[in-house]
Amino acid sequence: MTTPPAPIAPLRASNDSAHESVACTTVRVPMPDGVELVGDLYIPPGAGPWPAVLTRTPYEAADLHERGHMYAAHGYLFLVVDVRGRYRSPGQWDPMIHETVDGPATIAWLAAHPSCDGRVATRGASYSGANQLMAAPHAPSALKAMSVRSAPADAFENVPFQGGAYELSDLDWAWENSGRTSLYDPLEAEMDDASRAASARAALTARPLIDADLRLGVRSELLRTWMQHWKLDKYWERRAWLPALTAARVPALHVSGWWDNNARGSVLAFQAMGGAAGGQRLLIGPWDHSMIAPQVTDLPEHEQALVLRAAWRKPATDELAWFEHHLKGQPNRLAPVEVFVTGDWNWHEWPDWPLPAETQDWHLGADGSIAQKRAKRGERSYDFDPARPNTISSATTFPIEPFPYNTALDERDDVLVYRSTPLDDELFVAGDVSAAIVGSSTALDCDWVVRLVDEYPDGRAICVRDGILRSRFRRGFARPRLLTPGRKETFNVNLWHIAHRFRAGHRLRVEIASSALGRWDVNLQDGGDLATATTPVVSRQTVHSGPRGSHLRLPVAAGAALAWER
Prior knowledge:
It contains 12 helices and 24 strands. With 566 residues, the protein is α/β, with parallel strands linked by helices.
């Protein structure tokens, strides 16, 4: 049976009287090089000292005043600091560079504050989640717990690329957050969603891509720098944090949503820091990057209702319970792993992640089938024109973050579709999914976009997870190598992790294309510089089947995993 989420004490809402009793003061926090970061310190009423909660943000510390009052009302000293070079804090803003020093220094300063009892927790989302991971291996012993939400996986791998392709939402982030303050976004001024999406689409799809900032109206050196470093080089190696995380010994709550373009980070950080045995907790819900439900209108109505209802759960309550346990000694009622399983549309708790699973190879047949039986030799081809990229017609935003969209609406001659027979029994897939595409191209470079899809009996085909590999990175992101036109090679496409229940009567479906407009930049396929290329090249992509042909790797967990109880 499904175990319902353990009850968690609700957050106490801020009110005028609570605000009046909480003191807030501006502080300057000295860094080892003499730079003083500026923040706001919220002090609870009554006599301290208290345990402390810290957020370091590039998104303006003053915007977290409600969060500061809430934590102070719960008996925590709360400090929110503008990171180096942002808003009130002096210094140079260079994302991912100063966090390994500035983070630990801020934790030490807060732990030594007269109002702090020496115990500190950190919290934050997106960049404020990633900077915790950067600081954790170097943090003082005063750091007792972390709450990391929507943090990307690592520099380059997930910021600002996926599979070697530019992640357009990250490019938009770099443009918006390139200076001391976040840019006023002209796309959000007096424009409806359709007009805003059209304007962003025009800016991010014209060539050369490196001039997207000028088309948006403001030159961004950060955006241009990111675009120029389109392979894994010393620039990104200096900013990487995942390799060092194995040295971190801090209990952390890792939170993400299935439709968060940074979702990979939560699982990789959870595992790098020791998983359940290392005192970590993993929470994956029906959320996007903002921790709200994504667009779900392509799902059947009853499934829409289940997603929307489950998404009302607020991760902030889990965060508070986590801190109450690690900073105040309250009992821990939280399972090590709690996941909202798509396809089942329910929450489930488990003792660790990944689940025990059997890796099954599902082979792509030249007849458009997909089955566990090895396919006969054969091939299928399609012609791809970068000037005519594949679209996601259900999307209402641009750039496009993941959401459960109906791929059947976008079938065309440059998308290969592989379908299983209707499943006799349900298939519970939980863990990392990948595809080995044995293919060739007539171009010097191309993209392999792979979608894992749940095809319903009524014909709708809901995307469960997608992934991409830019061919030049087939041997590693640090070693780009152009293709030999027509030469057959294996391209391993990472589709990240899923926990999805394919129900009996549904079909397993795989789609292969060479673009996904709005998710990633479109590869012009000329083999040139990715930032400055301007000339599209039409190519023919061929996918090969056979005993050693293209296949999908699925971690299939026992159905009993859906009934695990603590």
